[in-house]
Design goal:
This protein is mainly β. The protein is 10% helix and 37% strand. It has three domains: 80 residues, Nuclear Transport Factor 2, Chain: A; 112 residues, Nuclear Transport Factor 2, Chain: A (Roll); 401 residues, Copper amine oxidase, catalytic domain (Beta-galactosidase, Chain A, domain 5, Distorted Sandwich). Keywords: Copper, Metal-binding, Oxidoreductase, Signal, TPQ.
């Protein structure tokens, strides 16, 4: 039961590790996602308010009041207030910063709206049945069995605020239909809440635009447009499927290496609280944005209050109208709720701890996603550190090494064609890696010769369109306390007289530090030179050697801007201007995006640029780092059937920089030291069992894959 409480967590210098551990453990539920019981209680409470006039979300009427989303409202950072659940009795209407209004047209699309879109597509394709049937070699949208057509819809839905016009492209409804476009695209105006008043505004076929379906059909019949005939559909052509083909000289019909835990798991979990190798943290999966970590501590000392996924975008280019318009902003599709079941042995090791997730998005009851998050420890097959100390006489003085094992917190988002794998990795030496790996199907459109300026031909009539992925994270650092400062570190060449040979000069590098005192100074633009080191530190706390305790952010990214500054849709993603921006923490600046940005990026209700416009002081303050990572993807033939993860993973590291007095992984008992003995026998020092042992599961592979209301 969540009680109304007001807490201020302040740790004095005399706090012990066990005390801070207890605070972290008991504080973790404040960050936990709402339970099924709580979600149901909130819905029941809201439906019990007569003036809201709420109806079921799945009611087929569009002109209605219904609940789109229920998710946890995070408490304020400095004082935690938890509402009276599971028996709510009051509510507060929250607004966005600056009280920006939310246009109804900017709402995410729902299942009910898709129902009506499907209905109008049935009417459209009935009119164009002969054209589609002849073009595709026997496929149709209605009255079909094994040769059906489906569709994908494009966003944003218009060219300006207040619009709701969507380009839709038809595809063959076969396995991997995302890469089976048929060359028929239609622009539907569905702004009116009466679906009977929806209209077709444009149709695209064979690189030509038509004002209506009737106009296209008339020209098709009269010879006014060249007819397109796709190659005959071959059921044995497996190009979009996962079915193995080709040759490998490795015996892949037997199992490869597997992870084992010889003496059982070495991490602990309690609901949403996790402990491992000095680390402790709480986690949640926000339905709109996705995976988030809170109250991150090492040996009880907080390093970050929050590290959270904020937004993911994929902006495309192409020759067809659907390709030109595709600018996906995935929080608008509730990418956090697209967390489907993870397959043991593929998505996560069989030894992983699997966790169910629950979401309330576009539904009338909570939906359970079984095994949608996993936690596991893995070996990297790379030493964390090692040294062979040679005696330069054919022998050695000693060998020392420590295996590198990490804890992984993982979930995925399947936003239609694309699959994102979201990882947090916790290393024994105080390093955190935040990573996203992209896979899934490419977003493909119908091939035209001009399309080669915007991508690659990957099949007879299919163009893989170029696009840029950008991911935005919030990193609220509390380095040895909340009062932090920020500096960048570069190198400068110095030239001086050689003190031991005055006739000569020494040229070498020296450190050049720049303290950034304001938000604008700490907002680094894409296209500008980025510092070698970006360093967050506590000016009031020092380590044993007199250095200010700090952490730095190290990028693994190939990101760049996707649109010119201020150009239409770019206003909705103003965070994408900066690989790194540092702001002063404000509870009113909790997120960098919203679920409404996708369908109104032109006048967004959350504008990240506002966060740095006032150019506040950031010296000795509670700081937030906003990190953008990403990569350009020019599709190629090897992206068939799916984009593969190698080379398509980006992210960043949080690395201690004088935070500790020495490498904290020295606490690990997995170290091995070998010294030669006088009698020729090895002297081996180890602190783990000499015999590793083995443990392989006897359970057969199992996967359910369904998700349903509970």
């Amino acid at each position: 039961m969540r009680l109304l409480c007001l807490l201020q967590l302040v740790c004095l210098a005399s706090c012990t590790v066990s005390r801070t551990r207890e605070w972290a453990l008991h504080g973790a539920p404040m960050f936990a996602d709402l339970t099924v019981h709580e979600l149901k209680a909130v819905r029941a409470y809201l439906h019990g308010i007569p003036e809201m006039e709420l109806t079921d979300a799945q009611n087929k009427i569009l002109k209605k009041n219904s609940i789109l989303l229920i998710e946890l409202h995070l408490p304020r950072k400095h004082e935690y207030i938890v509402s009276p659940l599971p028996f709510p009795n009051s509510h507060v209407v929250k607004t966005f910063k600056g009280d920006r209004p939310v246009l109804f047209e900017s709402r995410p699309i729902t299942n009910v709206e898709y129902y009506h879109i499907n209905n109008i597509l049935e009417k459209i394709t009935t009119k164009a049945h002969k054209l589609l049937f002849e073009t595709t070699g026997g496929f149709s949208f209605t009255n079909c069995s094994d040769r059906c057509l489906t569709f994908s819809d494009i966003a944003p839905r218009g060219l300006g605020p207040g619009e709701r016009r969507t380009w839709i492209m038809l595809q063959k409804f076969v396995e991997g239909y995302f890469i089976h476009p048929v060359g028929f695209e239609v622009l539907i105006n569905h702004q009116d809440l009466d679906p009977g008043k929806w209209t077709v505004e444009k149709v695209w076929y064979n690189s030509m635009y038509f004002d209506s379906v009737e106009d296209l059909v008339e020209k098709y019949e009269s010879g006014g447009v060249e007819k397109v005939k796709l190659p005959d559909h071959d059921e044995n052509d497996l190009f979009s499927t996962y079915i193995p083909r080709g040759h490998s000289n490795t015996p892949t019909n037997i199992h490869g290496p597997k992870l084992v835990q010889p003496q059982g798991p070495r991490f602990n979990t309690h609901e949403n609280f996790v402990e491992y190798a000095g680390w402790s943290f709480a986690y949640r999966v926000r339905s709109t944005a996705g995976l988030q970590v809170f109250d991150l501590r090492f040996n009880g000392e907080r390093i970050a209050y929050e590290i959270s996924l904020q937004e993911a975008i994929a902006f495309y280019a192409g020759d067809t109208p659907a390709a030109m318009q595709t600018k996906y902003i995935d929080a608008g599709w509730a990418m956090g709720s697209s967390t489907y079941e993870l397959a043991p042995g593929i998505d996560c090791p069989e030894i992983a701890k699997f966790v169910d997730l629950h979401h309330f998005f576009d539904t009338d009851k909570p939906v359970q996603h079984k095994n949608a998050l996993c936690i596991f420890e893995m070996t990297t097959a790379m030493p964390l550190r090692r040294h062979f100390n040679s005696n330069f006489s054919g022998g050695y003085n000693f060998y020392g090494g420590l295996e590198n094992t990490v804890l992984v917190l993982r979930t995925t988002s399947t936003v239609y064609n694309y699959d994102y794998i979201w990882d947090f990795l916790f290393y024994q030496n105080g390093v955190v890696e935040v990573k996203v790996s992209a896979t899934g199907y490419i977003h493909a459109t119908f091939f035209t010769p001009n399309g080669l300026h915007y991508g690659t031909k990957v099949y007879n009539y299919v163009l893989g369109n170029l696009h840029t992925h950008l991911i935005h994270y919030k990193v609220d650092l509390d380095i040895a306390g909340r009062e932090n400062s920020f500096e960048s570190i570069d190198l400068k060449f110095v030239n001086f007289t050689n003190p031991w040979s005055p006739k000569n000069f020494i040229v070498q590098s020296r450190l050049s530090r720049t303290e950034h005192k304001t938000e604008r100074s700490a907002a680094f633009r894409f296209g500008k030179k980025f510092p070698r080191y970006v360093h967050f530190y506590n000016p009031n706390e020092k380590n044993k050697w007199g250095h200010k305790k700090g952490y730095r952010i190290q990028f693994n990214s190939h990101a760049h801007s996707v649109l010119p500054r201020g150009w239409r849709e770019e206003n909705g993603i103003s965070w994408s201007r900066y690989p790194l921006a540092v702001t002063r923490h404000k509870d009113s600046e909790a997120t960098s995006s919203s679920i409404y940005t996708q369908n109104d990026p032109w006048e967004p209700v959350v504008s990240f640029e506002d966060y740095i416009r006032n150019n506040e002081d950031i010296v000795n303050q509670d700081l937030v780092a906003w990190v953008t990572v990403g990569f350009l993807h020019v599709p190629h033939s090897e992206d068939i059937p799916n984009t593969a993860t190698p080379g398509n993973a980006v992210g960043f590291f949080l690395r201690p920089f004088n935070f500790f007095n020495e490498d904290p992984s020295l606490a690990s008992k997995s170290t091995v030291i070998v010294r030669p003995g006088q009698d020729g026998k090895l002297k081996i020092q180890r602190w783990t069992p000499e015999v590793v042992g083995h443990c392989v599961t006897e359970e057969p592979f199992f996967y359910n894959g369904t998700y349903a209301g509970v």
